[in-house]
Every structure is written in C-alpha cells, then in structure tokens.
Specification:
Elements lengths: L1 H22 L13 E8 L2 E2 L4 E9 L7 E6 L4 E2 L9 E5 L3 E5 L8 E9 L5 E10 L2
Parallel strand pairs: 2-9
Antiparallel strand pairs: 1-3, 3-7, 4-6, 4-8, 5-7, 8-9
C-alpha cells in the first residue's frame, strides 16, 4: 500500500510539473533588424573648382553587426570613379565607405550634391547627402 501511495504521489507530482512547465513555455521571438546609423559624411576638400577631384567619406555602423554596403550618387555631369559608361554618376553595392568624384559642372551651380545610401543587406537602410561647394 505504501508503494502504491508513493507511486500515485510521484505521478501526481510529475503531472503537476508537466502542466506548470507547459505554462512557462515561451514562443521564440523573431530578431529585430535595425537600420544602419551615420556617424558622419565628410568631403575632402569641401570646396572645389570644376574639373577638380574630391573624396567623400561616409562613416556608418550597424547596431546588429551586419555588414554594410554603400550606394553612391551624384548629378551629371559630375561623375564617380568606378561608375560605368553612361551611368558614371552612380556606384551600387560597394563595400567602400569612400568614393572619389570628379567635378564637372556648369557655371550656374554653386554646389554639388552627393548622396549615399547605406544598406545592411537584410532590409535595413539609411540615406544621407552632403553638398560640396563649387568655386567660380
């Protein structure tokens, strides 16, 4: 009789643990992806003449630790090193956070706008721009 009571008690205790354990189960939560963040966008030099070259550096990071790629754009006739053919005003999907530009502008402009999109490859992105002064 003692063994029977002990067995019933153990079975009840195990059943109770299983029921309580099921109530504590948590469903897995999908990880959240954050957009990259800019720390700075800087041009060297920040003022140029037509036909000068200049560099733009985009410092960015991803809080999730994802690798970043950069898309660079400028308005023609200014061009980007690495641009191809008639699309020499854009460079896509580069791992380089620096781009070299060649200022070719008309005399009506007083600045050149450079745009950069930073992407983490899994949906996060951020866009920014900088103006480079144009000396007459």
């Amino acid at each position: 009789m003692k063994n029977k009571n002990c067995t019933i008690g153990m079975a009840l205790a195990l059943s109770l643990l299983m029921v309580l354990g099921e109530g504590c189960k948590q469903e897995p939560v999908a990880p959240t992806n954050h957009n990259p963040t800019f720390t700075s966008i800087v041009a060297f030099p920040n003022k140029v003449h037509s036909l000068d070259s200049f560099a733009v550096v985009c410092s960015a990071y991803d809080i999730d630790g994802n690798s970043l790629v950069y898309d660079w754009f400028c308005n023609p006739p200014t061009s980007i090193r690495g641009g191809h053919g008639s699309e020499n005003w854009m460079v896509y999907n580069t791992k380089e956070n620096i781009a070299i530009f060649y200022a070719r502008t008309d005399s009506l402009q007083d600045s050149i706008r450079i745009d950069v999109d930073v992407r983490d490859g899994i949906g996060g992105s951020m866009s920014g721009h900088i103006f480079v002064g144009l000396s007459k």
